[in-house]
Specification:
Length: 214
């Protein structure tokens, strides 16, 4: 969702549940963005009730450094829901692209988030740079300990080699793709998705069971 919950009708929101697959191997997430972060917990709680608490697993927060207290407020109501914190281009700009400042920010989210997704691309298909990401990944691992780590940026059926240099050091790395899974009409392509998943499992094998593939 690229707009706050109040911009959608209850009918539209209830249809979200229809896209999720009830399978224990799948992490069903609602991607959420809003500029009104002061009321983030209220927005997420409203969305949770409209969609149905049992219909999905949590949220990917495509928000540059949402208020930790808002996440805590939501977690108090829905402790089983997971948060994926996207660190996108705006979030990196806010910390001046500094790994040290990334660590300082992440400390505020310990115990609140379940995954950190490093994404310079922001869904635009910009090519992932493994060596650029490596120091940030090291910071996430050192600072958050048990939080999952993921990367995004131009990943698709023919670009899985981009993450290969990271896998020896980060064998449980999660991956995320969107832009390269779309066809010339900007529609998600089922054939691209199937090839992406297939190539991802080949790359991660025999560690594929440890990873999340979005």
């Amino acid at each position: 969702m690229d707009k706050a919950v109040e911009h959608y009708s209850a009918r539209e929101i209830k249809h979200i549940a229809e896209i999720f697959c009830k399978d224990s191997r799948i992490l069903n997430l609602i991607h959420y963005n809003t500029k009104n972060t002061d009321l983030l917990s209220v927005q997420l709680a409203t969305l949770t009730e409209l969609v149905g608490p049992l219909q999905f697993d949590g949220f990917q927060l495509n928000i540059a450094w949402p208020p930790p207290l808002e996440l805590l407020s939501y977690k108090c109501l829905y402790p089983d829901k997971k948060f994926v914190l996207q660190v996108g281009s705006s979030a990196f700009e806010a910390i001046e692209n500094s790994p040290d400042k990334l660590a300082e920010r992440l400390i505020l989210y310990i115990g609140l988030i379940d995954y950190v997704l490093l994404d310079f691309s922001g869904g635009k298909g910009l090519i992932l740079d493994a060596e650029k990401l490596r120091p940030y990944l090291r910071v996430v691992v050192k600072t958050t300990k048990n939080v999952g780590i993921g990367v995004a940026g131009g990943l698709g059926p023919s670009t899985m080699h981009l993450i290969e240099p990271l896998l020896d050091e980060f064998p449980s790395l999660c991956i995320d793709a969107e832009g390269k899974l779309r066809d010339e009409y900007d529609h998600l392509s089922s054939s691209y998705i199937k090839k992406y998943i297939s190539n991802a499992f080949k790359l991660f094998k025999p560690k594929a069971s440890l990873n999340k593939i979005y």
